Amino acid sequence: MGIAARELSLYVIRPTLLYLGQNNPDAEVLLLGIAASQSRLGSELHNRRGHGLYCIREPRHWALWDHYLAHNPDLASQIRGLASQHAFLGNPHLELTVNLRYATAIAWLLIEEQKTPIPHADDIPGMARLWRQVFEPQGRLRDFTDAWHSFVTPLNQVARDF
Known about the structure:
Shape: globular
Oligomer: single chain
Radius of gyration: 15 Å
């Protein structure tokens, strides 16, 4: 069983984006869709595709630190501040599985690094294309949209009922 979409959005994704200076509802919805398609909102936190909520592969994690964050020490320090003090040094990839805010920040930076415009929250095909570009180059757009309809659409229906 995964994390409830509403709680993931309210208590993990939104605060992490705000911490990074991103007050962007479209980015919030995109990350929710990526978590749905990558790990079924946390039902599969560690599998052959990668670690954690966003199934980030170890080489991508290293490359982000070595080629993106290394050139921005202030941002690197901010991201490092999300990680566990001792656990990160021993096994930084484990942070992607056990630390939801750290994993969300890394996922966001993988997107930001591409310098691709973020699709609007109602542009599911656009979000699917960005997901495939950044997270699953061999993925099928249908995989994203199926996950969206299974995990995120029910959240939207609940939100309208309140």
